[in-house]
Recover the amino acids of this structure.
């Protein structure tokens, strides 16, 4: 049932394996860098040693860290994809998560295939201190090269996507999608209110609020997510290369820069296909619709 409530449609959180089965062609996923593991370089200890927390999460999930990445296909189109699993220390981003995502983006660049990241994270991993904060820059820097080369990035924000993950690559996709009612925000509601000195609007950290205010491009129900990604991949071709340089006259910096030029060529076909007003969204004010083996793949609910 795609982990959806049959009564209210609530989107429950999914494991990495469930995401792979939901989004990718059967049998197409090839995991990369499966052996990377975080180490406790700071000897961090709060009420428990960091090393103990890592081991507990590994035993609980069967994963080495909070992100799995690899190469797969969606309706036959190859993609480099990274997927978060919130069960592993709240999907927090430490040095291994940052390294895996950086390698995902670099592979998308070298193989000239689109990149997709499905996020579910509480932010930077505090147990790694500054090393965790460095991952914001580490995951953002390759996106400049992707942009220059005309290689598209699609980010999918799922519940929750917060903190340093939202403040880095998750907000920098050429197309930014979100699942319904996902919690998306940098800081907690109380911290945000205290910082600005006033009450924040109700639901200001929901996917629907962000869509209404132009921060994301579409809210896509889980049942439609694979089909939406497939349609986007058809509309976001990787730029051709001549003499070693990408040919991408239509590509501009910022969200949806890769497809901003398609509006004139395809007219209404773009908005009809992906549910986004391309010309408006390219200016940052998009509106969309209102509404090896990986542990967890065989799970059913």
């Amino acid at each position: 049932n795609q982990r959806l409530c049959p009564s209210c449609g609530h989107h429950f959180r999914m494991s990495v394996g469930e995401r792979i089965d939901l989004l990718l062609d059967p049998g197409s996923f090839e995991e990369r860098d499966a052996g990377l593991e975080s180490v406790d370089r700071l000897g961090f200890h709060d009420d428990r040693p960091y090393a103990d927390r890592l081991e507990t999460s590994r035993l609980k999930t069967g994963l080495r860290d909070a992100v799995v990445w690899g190469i797969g296909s969606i309706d036959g189109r190859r993609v480099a994809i990274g997927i978060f699993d919130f069960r592993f220390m709240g999907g927090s981003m430490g040095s291994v998560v940052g390294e895996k995502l950086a390698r995902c983006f670099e592979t998308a660049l070298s193989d000239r295939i689109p990149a997709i990241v499905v996020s579910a994270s509480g932010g930077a991993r505090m147990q790694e201190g500054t090393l965790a904060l460095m991952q914001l820059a580490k995951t953002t820097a390759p996106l400049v090269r992707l942009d220059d080369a005309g290689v598209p990035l699609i980010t999918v924000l799922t519940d929750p996507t917060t903190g340093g993950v939202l403040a880095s690559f998750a907000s920098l996709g050429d197309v930014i999608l979100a699942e319904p009612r996902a919690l998306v925000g940098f800081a907690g509601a109380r911290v945000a209110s205290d910082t600005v000195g006033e009450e924040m609007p109700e639901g200001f950290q929901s996917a629907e609020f962000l869509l209404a205010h132009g921060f994301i491009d579409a809210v896509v129900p889980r049942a439609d997510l694979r089909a939406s990604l497939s349609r986007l991949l058809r509309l976001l071709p990787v730029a051709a290369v001549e003499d070693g340089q990408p040919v991408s006259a239509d590509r501009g910096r910022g969200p949806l820069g890769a497809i901003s030029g398609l509006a004139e060529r395809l007219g209404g076909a773009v908005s009809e296909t992906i549910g986004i007003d391309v010309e408006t969204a390219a200016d940052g004010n998009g509106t969309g619709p209102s509404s090896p083996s990986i542990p967890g793949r065989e799970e059913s609910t």
